[in-house]
Structure formats: structure tokens, C-alpha cells
Amino acid sequence: MLQTLLRGRVLTFHREPAGAEDTDAYSYIEDGALLLEAGQIVATGGYDDIAPRATGAEVIDHRPHLLMPGFIDTHIHFPQLQIVASWGSQLLEWLNGYTFPAEAQYGDAQHARAMAGRFCDLLTDHGTTTAVAFCSSHKGSAEALFSEAHSRDMRMIAGKTLMDRNAPDEVLDTPQSGYDDSVALIEAWHGQGRLSYAITPRFAITSTPAQMETAQALAARYPHCYVQTHLSENQAEIAYTAELYPQARDYLDVYEAYGLLGPRTLLGHAIHLRPREIATIAETQSHPVFCPTSNLFLGSGLFDDAGLRAQGITNAIATDIGAGTSFSMLQTLNEGYKILQLQDQKLHALRAFHWITRGNAHVLGLGDRIGSLDAGTEADIVVLDSRATPAMALRMDRAETLAEELFALQMMGDDRAIVETYVAGNPQKKGRQ
Ligand code: GUN
Ligand code: ZN
């Protein structure tokens, strides 16, 4: 069997680091190597230990760059890749003015297929090897994304958006069609290769109670699927939700009443929460998703990472393209650091890189497959150049520790710092040159 040996500085996490001194939380090997075979990492260690086991392997020398697990983006909108940086509004006006018209185009399966290729290219160009994606409400948009990811052997979690009101007709489904299309997609794609399905009610405003019932039926029928939605991003959204669901105790209660909470549920944004909602998120082990560049772009508010963690909640982190302004998980960490600074909270570089790799993998229940460089896991790997730009190189001249290097990458890095991205052992950048 064909083997590949990657040589470079290897960094992978075993648990969340408490800080720079918590060296037991990670392995860092200065002259390290990863042996890949059939899409898996079969050995990780020092180059001198691994190389003798790899006679006949193709050797790719990435020194002096860093080899890390591929990044995981836990909340992104596939049909919004062309509306990043749409000017001037907050959430509800932004949805009506830019988002729904852009998503309407995905009723054209040819457009969806063309964009699916661009979307996967953009992810891997930015070092992201797994994404959890909202598709449009059209079945064909989810088919296009699943098919594209499958052809690349890329781990992808996605779902057709359920939305049956408060949007233009071109992006609306019905409770019945939404249910039927979701069932057909789950049966066709969930568990195929590296694909998983996320049941995707967009948010309370765009789903009638009748549609929420069908989402509940889907979640009950397919408990191995994920559930993704949006929660408490913006005050106008919260007020409108309260009007539409007058019997709900709070926003979260809409999802709770329809049995949509649990360890496989991702709640995008979750910024303006009441104590009861926080307690219920903790109790149900659901996961808030912090979307820093989006929250700043739409002026939505400041995510209380420390407050939620103090209640035993595990947060994910994500780009939320197209309200998010960058596909880069490094830029996401950069803005995340600043949002926490505004609240006198800290995002240490080691915790930051744990978060976008092993941390997000564990949120998805996939820690045994992705998010680390352990032998036996899938060969999704990113190669990082911390001197990618002149400004980064100058900063690195003054960096003395791994933590300093990582912090420079976190604050200054973007797709220019991504030398290569391996998906199931296959180089994505080299492959396209
Ligand atoms: N809430 C409902 N839909 C969306 C969306 O597409 N983007 C964001 N940021 N929030 C939402
Ligand atoms: Zn979103």
C-alpha cells in the first residue's frame, strides 16, 4: 500500500491546555513525522523513529513548517459565499436584503454544483478540512455539496435548510416537502464515506410550529444526525421570536419544546441568553457556537465564552460565512481574542489552536477520528508557515516560544499561512496547481 511520510514540526493536543505552561496537554515534536496510508495517519512521532518504518514511502519535507490537525469550522453557510462583506445592516435586514436573494439562486442545481466546488476549495485553501454547513432550502444545494465533498473524501456535515415562512417564496419549503427532502437526503448521504447529515431548521422566525413538529419527527427518527440552528443572535430577532411563539418561556424554549436539544445540537451565536436558557443548554449538553467575525460584522453582541464554560457548557467556534467575514479559522481566532478582551476574558493561543482542532472535533463527537494527529485517525492535516508575510516574519524574529509563535499565527495569520492542506491524505493545494 502506498505510504506518504510528512516531515515537519508536529503539534497536536491531548486535552484543552490550561495555558502555555500546561505542556502535558499537547505533544510538540521539533523534528517530527506523520506516516500516512489509505487516508489515515498510521504513525506519529520523531522523524528518526518513524522514517525507518517508512521505507518506500514518498517523503514530503515540510520543514520548517508546523504540521497540525486540519481546522474544523462548526457553522458556515454554503450558499452565502458570494455575499461576504455586504454592506450596512444588522441581522434581519441583512437576511432580507442580501441572504435570501443569494440563497434563491441555489434553486438552480447547476449553480449549486459550480459553487460547491468553489466552496470546498475555499475551505481547504484556508486550512479547514471539516465543516458543518447550512445549505439552502433546495434539496439540490445539499446534493451538490455532499456530492462534491464525497468526491474529495472530505469530512462534511451538512443539511438542507428548513424554512417555511417569513422569506421570499423562492427560498421557502413546506413542512411536508422539508420533511420529505430531508429524509431523502439523509437516506442518500448520511454515513456515506465521511458525510453526515444535520437536520437544519434555520431559526424560529422562519419555521412555523408545523415545521418545527416535522423537525422534531426527523430528529426522533434519525437520532444519529446532528441538529443545527440559530439562537439569540440579535435583540430584534429575540423580540420577533417572542411574538411568533408567545407560549415559549424564552427563545431556547422553542427548540426545547420540539425536542431539538441534545449533545448533537449546535446553536449558532447564543449571545443574549437568560439564566434559564444557559441552565438548559448545560443540562441538555447542547453546544453554543461562537462566531466572532460575524458577531462583530452584524453588530450582534459579545459572546460570553467564560460565563457559559463556567456552567459546564462546551462551546464550538466557527466562521459563519457569509455574515462572517473570513473563511479563515485563524482570523476567527483573531476576532475571538478581541471579543473576549472586551469582556476581560482571555483566549490563550494554545487553547485557541486546541479549540479549532480537537475542541471542535469533540463538540461533534468525532474526537476519535479528526482533530488530532494520533495514529488511527483520519489524515486531515494543515501545514502552517508562521513567517508567511513580511510582517509575520518580522514578528517571528522576536518570538522565543511555541506559544508566541502560535499567537502570531492566531492574530496575523490567514490563508497565506496555509502552505498545504491534506484531506484524507491528499494534498489539496498541490493537487490544483
Ligand atoms: N439567523 C438565521 N439565519 C441566519 C444566517 O444565515 N446567518 C446568521 N448570521 N444568522 C442567521
Ligand atoms: Zn449562521
Describe the protein.
By secondary structure, the protein is α/β, with parallel strands linked by helices. It has two domains: 3-70 and 372-432, Roll (Urease, subunit C, domain 1); 71-363, Alpha-Beta Barrel (TIM Barrel), CATH 3.20.20.140. Helix content is 37%, strand content 23%. It contains 15 helices and 16 strands. It has helices at 47-50, 91-104, 109-125, 139-151, 175-189, 209-221, 235-244, 251-257, 275-284, 292-297, 305-309, 329-341, 349-363, 390-397, 402-412; strands at residues 3-13, 26-37, 40-46, 58-69, 71-77, 128-134, 155-159, 161-162, 195-201, 226-231, 265-269, 287-290, 316-317, 381-384, 418-423, 426-427. The strands form two sheets. Strands 5, 6, 7, 8, 9, 10, 11, 12 and 13 form a nine-stranded parallel beta sheet that branches. A hairpin with a 2-residue loop joins strand 15 (418-423) and strand 16. The longest helix is centred in the first third of the chain and has 17 residues, at 109-125. The protein is globular. The structure holds guanine (GUN) and zinc ion. Zinc ion is lined by residues 75, 77, 230, 268, 320. Guanine binds next to helix 2. Residues 67-426 form the Amidohydrolase-related domain. GO terms for molecular function: guanine deaminase activity. Keywords: Hydrolase, Metal-binding, Zinc.
